[in-house]
Amino acid sequence: MDFSRRLRLFLIGVVLGSVIMYFYVLKDKNIYKSPKEVIKEKLLHFPLQLTTKAACQIKCSNLDTAQLRKSWKNSEIDFGMSKVDEKPCPLYHITLTPALGDTKIIECTVCDDFVVMQEIKETKEECLCN
Predict the structure, then answer these.
(1) How far apart are CA 99 and CA 103, in angstroms?
(2) Is residue 10 part of a domain?
(3) Residue 10: which domain range?
(4) What's 80's domain CATH number?
(5) Do 20 and 42 lie in a common domain?
(6) pLDDT per position as a tens digit, 47-94
(7) Could you tell me if 124 and 61 are in contact, meaning their C-beta atoms sit under 8 angstroms apart?
(8) Is the model's pTM score more than 0.85?
(9) What's the domain count of the chain?
(10) Cβ–Cβ < 8 Å for 24, 95
(11) What is the DSSP string of the chain?
């Protein structure tokens, strides 16, 4: 077998292998994610912890944490207001859509393996949570 025939067979094998790997491994995965998508993924999948102020605000506003987590899928993250360089965990301003009744802005700290809800910015006036 001469060199050109071996090279053609090798290239055909590489192309077929690449196509098979694409359909079996990479087809359904979104490799290129924006920072907003990465943060939303962390918000949805990491365990949620509440500060005492956030727990008070949720109780006063009659909100459900499960509903809040579901509404994070369609939320907007404001990087201008967020403190992404905060140490040890960055603080993000998340604007929830009006699915919960009215627009709410939530401050959340997203760490490596958990999320801490700091506070809800727009709550009822009668809530005296500090």
Answers:
(1) 8
(2) yes
(3) 1-32
(4) 3.30.2310
(5) no
(6) 888 888 888 877 877 777 777 777 777 788 888 888 878 788 888 888
(7) yes
(8) no
(9) 2
(10) no
(11) --HHHHHHHHHHHHHHHHHHHIIIIITT------HHHHHHHHHHHSPEEE-HHHHHHHHHHT--HHHHHHHGGG-EEEEEEEETT-SSS-EEEEEEPGGGSS-EEEEEEE-SS-EEEEEESS--TT----
